[in-house]
Write a structure and sequence with these properties.
The structure holds two protein chains of two kinds. Chain A is mainly beta. Chain A has no helices and twelve strands. Helices cover about 0% and strands about 50% of the residues of chain A. In chain A, strand 8 and strand 9 form a beta hairpin. The chains are: A mainly beta, B mainly beta.
Chain lengths: ~120, ~120
């Protein structure tokens, strides 16, 4: 079974600074998707960024970028120029790409605090 | 695009009551929707996959007679918690995707409190 591990229960960053959230996963499959979702206090899950395992290039979305290390099964999220609105729970998630369940397997989350 | 609406956002009811939660895809058709449950300060756990026109697929340990899922149309799935008890109190959240290769988009969630 696939597992996703987020080793940082909480992180903090100063406004305008950069922070990196860690995520590792375990799978025997070669093709899959990885995601970072953000859950602010409003509780809605918002997709931040996604990565397809067959792509070597790291995904980027404005201030958000990932460092995808397939061999190491690592998928960290870097937030640049942090803003107060970035404060939220961040969940790393895995999903297989072909056949079977489309189940998202989530890590336990990292609570990010942004200090003014 | 890819907006998912969930209703109601909050329910408080007495033990023994059945509660229905709706999940709608507003601007796309979703042949498949997903129902998750989230306990306080924990991650989301998939309960079941809802398939339009067929029976839902439940995850191991989820009681299908307790959590009834109906996917009535390509834009609506409902989750009914039957004879709810305090231990069913939780945050329930649905998601949907346009096609398998696309990411899941989530609704706002429903906080269910059983007294």
């Amino acid at each position: 079974a696939q597992t996703v591990t987020q080793s940082q229960p909480e992180m903090s960053v100063q406004e305008a600074e950069t922070v990196t959230l860690s995520c590792t996963y375990d799978t025997s499959e070669s093709d899959y998707y990885l995601f970072w979702y953000k859950q602010p206090p409003s509780r809605q899950m918002i997709l931040v960024i996604r990565q397809e395992a067959y792509k070597q290039q790291n995904a980027t979305e404005n201030r958000f970028s990932v460092n995808f290390q397939k061999a190491a099964k690592s998928f960290s999220l870097k937030i640049s120029d942090s803003q107060l609105g970035d404060a939220a729970m961040y969940f790393c998630a895995y999903r297989r790409s072909q056949g079977g369940s489309e189940k998202l397997v989530f890590g336990k989350g990292t609570k990010l605090t942004v200090n003014p | 695009g890819a907006v998912v609406s969930q209703h109601p956002s909050r329910v408080i009811c007495k033990s023994g009551t059945s509660v229905k939660i709706e999940c709608r895809s507003l601007d796309f058709q979703a042949t498949t929707m997903f129902w998750y449950r989230q306990f306080p300060k924990q991650s989301l756990m998939l309960m079941a996959t809802s398939n339009e026109g067929s029976k839902a697929t439940y995850e191991q340990g989820v009681e299908k007679d307790k959590f009834l899922i109906n996917h009535a149309s390509l834009t609506l799935s409902t989750l009914t918690v039957t004879s709810a008890h305090p231990e069913d109190s939780s945050f329930y959240i649905c998601s949907a995707r346009v096609r398998r290769s696309q990411p899941q988009h989530f609704g706002d969630g429903t906080r269910l409190s059983i007294l």
